[in-house]
Write a structure and sequence with these properties.
This protein is mainly alpha-helical. A two-stranded antiparallel sheet has the order 1-2. It starts with a strand and ends with a helix.
């Protein structure tokens, strides 16, 4: 919100919420993990219907949890709390990797798709670990 005076009348201008960038939105690891979640959603679209409430749901929830926990952790004041949420994000990422391996073994995703997603996850894991180390200093 900015304030100015014109002819001794105070003018209050509100900053549009859409223009505000939250701290987590500045994190490159958050951006990558959000894109990773979208990829997981797209990769699970063709899973069998009987997996809708099984593997599909678990994969999607765990993938969304990565970026969500990074966002929530960025709002915490203490470094200890921030590191805790980074650890949860990392754990969710490992959950996704485990479930992707199962999906590949069952034949729901190809080896190429698995390797592509593993490559993304590897980058994200490295970045989360780096973030977590900076939060524990």
């Amino acid at each position: 919100m900015s304030r100015s005076k014109v002819d001794n009348v105070e003018i209050v201008e509100r900053v549009e919420v859409a223009d505000y960038i939250f701290p987590f939105e500045k994190l490159e690891v958050w951006k990558l993990s959000k894109a990773f979640a979208v990829k997981i959603y797209k990769n699970t679209e063709n899973f069998p219907n009987e997996e809708k409430f099984g593997l599909v749901s678990q994969l999607r929830r765990a993938a969304v949890s990565v970026s969500s926990n990074l966002a929530e952790g960025s709002s915490r004041k203490s470094k200890k709390d921030q590191a805790h949420f980074s650890q949860i994000a990392y754990s969710s990422l490992m959950e996704v990797l485990c479930q992707l391996e199962i999906a590949k073994d069952i034949g729901y995703i190809s080896e190429n798709d698995l390797q592509d997603l593993r490559s993304d996850a590897s980058k994200i894991a490295y970045m989360i670990n780096s973030l977590r180390k900076s939060q524990t200093c």
